């Protein structure tokens, strides 16, 4: 069983009055993020005016009314320096949403400014050992901007402790495979997402196995069980376009499943994956030929204490290699647009 700290952890959530925030805060406060023995103080950051007022009144009342034993304090603020002061874990959810007719490049520019400000505050006042998960889109590039301002020019954070979330894409892939094979999600192992949290992502089943139960020592390759045509015609389009499909179906972007993925991302990073693979966008140090310094999704395993390791030695087939080259080229393109906006 993973070791758990009994020390109070300060957890900052930005965009806390939003849809994901509402699905996230109660789970953090109940111990689902850092385990059942770790007391937490919540630092909730919102825009000034109505958003922070709604948070400070309504959400604060509801958090209080849950009487969570692990929740020691709640601070609602629109001051990034107060929100990140000495924080141990930060979930950066708040972001400028894509407006009607807005291109991805406009979104990148608008968010680059937000994440420059928040990254600067994190680098100056958060714990130097802060661990950050970026959820707000475009998540990978927002993580990069956060990192550049939190970790350089006097910023005290470590770029390897800043991550972006591709766990929702990972969970979506596992769920589709489990449905197709009529099994539980834990029977699916060694699935991963490579690259960017965008349509260019690369869901990869080439190493994925089906294990009937935990002690099954005869795992079977999933690709053979589900068939190549199902992967190409059904699986890949569904996983890659699931975000837009949810928006079309409910008129708003995924919130509860995104919050669930954020909990899984940080929980597993903090407490370990017990040898199982998950997908995380991390600071690229050139693994598998990814460009250095961008935030790219890789298959990882985690061990307790916020340690991740990219799964080594995998072979990519020609198609995956070419798709990986495209998604990482997109990360570089996004980096260039965002860097220009913030004077890097
Ligand atoms: P939402 O609009 O309901 O909430 C966002 C909140 O952020 C709002 O309350 C807004 O006031 C706040 N906010 C905006 N700018 C801020 C700033 N500078 N500082 C603090 N707060 C700020 O949106 P949501 O549904 O909660 O989604 C949040 C983000 O998560 C969006 O960017 C969305 O695209 C993204 N998302 C990512 C994934 C993923 O898999 N990575 C999945 C789903 C959604
Ligand atoms: C998702 O994957 O559900 C979201 O990233 C979609 C979005 O644009 O908010």
The CATH architecture term of the largest domain is Alpha-Beta Complex
Low-confidence stretches: none
Which value, in Å, is the CA radius of gyration? 19 Å
- The domain tally reads 2
Reported by name, the CATH topology of the largest domain is: L-2-Hydroxyisocaproate Dehydrogenase, Chain A, domain 2
According to DSSP, the number of beta strands is 14
How is the secondary structure organized here?
Blueprint: E1 9-14, H1 19-29, E2 40-45, H2 50-65, E3 71-77, H3 80-84, E4 89-92, H4 104-125, E5 131-134, H5 139-151, E6 162-164, H6 167-181, E7 188-189, E8 192-194, E9 202-204, E10 209-210, E11 220-221, H7 222-226, H8 228-240, H9 242-250, H10 256-271, E12 278-283, E13 295-303, E14 307-310, H11 318-341
Parallel strand pairs: 1-2, 1-4, 2-3, 4-5, 5-6
Antiparallel strand pairs: 7-10, 8-9, 10-11, 12-13, 13-14
Helix pairs in contact: 1-10, 4-5, 4-11, 5-11, 6-8
Molecular structure report:
The longest helix has 24 residues, at 318-341. The termini are far apart. The mean pLDDT is 96. Strand 5, helix 5 and strand 6 form a beta-alpha-beta unit. The chain is built from eleven helices and 14 strands. The protein has two domains: 9-164, Rossmann fold (3-Layer(aba) Sandwich); 167-335, L-2-Hydroxyisocaproate Dehydrogenase, Chain A, domain 2 (Alpha-Beta Complex), CATH 3.90.110.10. Helix 5 packs across helix 11. By secondary structure, the protein is α/β, with parallel strands linked by helices. Strands 3-2-1-4-5-6 form a six-stranded parallel β-sheet, with helices on both faces. A three-stranded antiparallel β-sheet has the order 7-10-11. The protein has a three-stranded antiparallel β-sheet with strand order 12-13-14. It is globular. Residues 14-15, 17-21, 45-47, 51, 93-97, 114, 135-137, 139, 165, 168, 197, 253-255, 258 line the site of nicotinamide-adenine-dinucleotide.
């Amino acid at each position: 069983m993973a070791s758990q700290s009994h020390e109070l952890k300060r957890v900052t959530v930005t965009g806390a009055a939003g849809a994901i925030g509402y699905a996230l805060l109660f789970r953090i406060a109940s111990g689902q993020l850092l385990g059942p023995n770790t007391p937490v103080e919540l630092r909730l950051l919102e825009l000034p005016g109505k958003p922070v007022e709604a948070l400070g009144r309504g959400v604060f009342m509801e958090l209080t009314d849950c009487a969570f034993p692990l929740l020691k304090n709640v601070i609602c603020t629109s001051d990034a320096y107060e929100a990140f002061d000495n924080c141990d874990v930060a979930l950066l959810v708040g972001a400028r949403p894509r407006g009607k007719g807005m291109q991805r490049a406009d979104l990148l520019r608008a968010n680059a400014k937000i994440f420059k400000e928040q990254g600067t505050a994190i680098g100056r006042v958060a714990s130097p050992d802060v661990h950050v998960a970026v959820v707000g889109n475009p998540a990978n590039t927002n993580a990069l901007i956060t990192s550049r301002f939190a970790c350089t020019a006097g910023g005290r954070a470590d770029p390897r402790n800043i991550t972006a979330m591709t766990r929702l894409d990972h969970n979506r892939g596992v769920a589709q495979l489990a449905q197709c094979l009529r099994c539980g999600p834990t029977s699916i192992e060694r699935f991963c997402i490579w690259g960017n949290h965008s349509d260019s992502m690369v869901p990869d089943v080439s190493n994925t196995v089906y294990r009937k139960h935990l002690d099954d020592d005869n795992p079977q390759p999933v690709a053979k069980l589900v068939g190549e045509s199902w992967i190409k015609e059904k699986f890949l389009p569904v996983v890659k376009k699931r975000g837009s499909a949810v928006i079309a179906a409910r008129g708003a972007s995924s919130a509860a499943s995104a919050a669930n993925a954020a909990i899984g991302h940080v929980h597993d990073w903090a407490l370990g994956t017990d040898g199982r693979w998950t997908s995380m966008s991390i600071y690229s140090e050139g693994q598998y030929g990814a460009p250095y310094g961008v935030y790219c999704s890789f298959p990882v395993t985690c061990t307790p204490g916020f340690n991740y390791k990219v799964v080594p030695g995998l072979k990519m087939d020609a198609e995956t290699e070419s798709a990986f080259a495209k998604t990482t080229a997109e990360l570089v393109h996004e980096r260039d647009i965002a860097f220009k906006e913030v004077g890097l």
